[in-house]
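Hi D.,

Good news: the full-assembly prediction came through. Inputs first.
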Amino acid sequence: MNNVIVRDYDIPANDFTAAGEASSSVRKILVQLGVSPYVVKRTSIAMYEAEINAVIHGHGGKAHVEIDGSKVYIRISDEGPGIPDLELAMQEGYSTAPDSIREMGFGAGMGLSNIKKHSDIMKIDTEVNKGTTVHITVFFNAI
Amino acid sequence: MTIEELVRDFGYKVITGSAEDLKHPVKGVYACDLLSHAMAKVNSGDLWITIHTNINVVAVASLTDAACVLIPEGIAVEPQTVERAAEKGVVILSSPSTTAQVCHEVLSMIGMKS
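Then the structure:
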């Protein structure tokens, strides 16, 4: 597999009927490529959390995905409110999700820590009132 | 232990799932209502028990490759969720039993047959 597979997805705001579609699509591609179930699982978890964050907090956004022979790179960007205190936001259990989101089973403050745990490289660029971009890389040869 | 066998043995109601889908094996059980936690912990082939019936349950079940979702205590499943699950080939079962009872039922069967 020398070619790079590139995919772009729109993530609609507050639309839970479409939430997870981009992650599902990437999962399918990885399964078809014969990537190990462990890597598929890690990628699915990390990307789904970032996708849901964009839906809930970021007024929707975009997902850009590049898959080559050794890794999958995912960039989820939104033009939402940004994260004022990234260190605080990274703490497991910290959440700013409203009650309506909590009632659906989200908002436990696990999203960003789940992404960190299940990716090999995670980088967040964020600016208040400008938006947030989450970069996720998962290597295929991870143990 | 297949989904079909569990349906037969414990009278679970099939909300979504084709005859073919019901032949899939159930390898384990996971019970959790926090979707982020379930997303990270449900293993491929698990029967996942949750009281949530919103559409996100379908995405989590699909992404984790769960064997099926079981909604306990006879809780009604939102029509939108049923529709999406049918589209995605996600099996949803329903039972009047509690989460704890369903765990006991399914684990006892998996224990016997594996």
